[in-house]
Amino acid sequence: MLSSKTGATVTVAIIGPYNWNCDSWWYWNQKAIEIAVKNINNSPLILPNVTIEIKRFNDNDKPVCFENPGYAIATAYDIVTNFPDVIGVMGDLGSLETLADAEVYGLNDIPICTGSEYHQRFWKSSNYPTYFQMFGYTGFAESIALL
Q: Mind telling me which InterPro entries this protein's record contains (predicted)?
């Protein structure tokens, strides 16, 4: 990632199902995040003197895209325990996974932003203090800019 900025570097995690059953849908979400990060890093007006780096994490070990909250929690725990440079998380697919890992990130004061998850439990924001989402199925381009 090229950037003309000098100064701090921050890391944002992209989590998602890196398996072939979700590749086309997830591919475009990743591309939106990558484009947003590139635009931010190349702009002297947005986060001046800060460069964003991306780390990718797989939170799905099943041959399907959704309904694997246990693995999502394990991935979230790995991120908060072993990657102290991660200041925010983008992604995850499926409400069950997001409900699970949003609690882990909330307990560790790490913001998590998603683009498409929906569950009525998210309506009570005090239960998920660092979770926020874009309007359903609109993608991540704006999310990374907010993060």
A: Peripla_BP_I
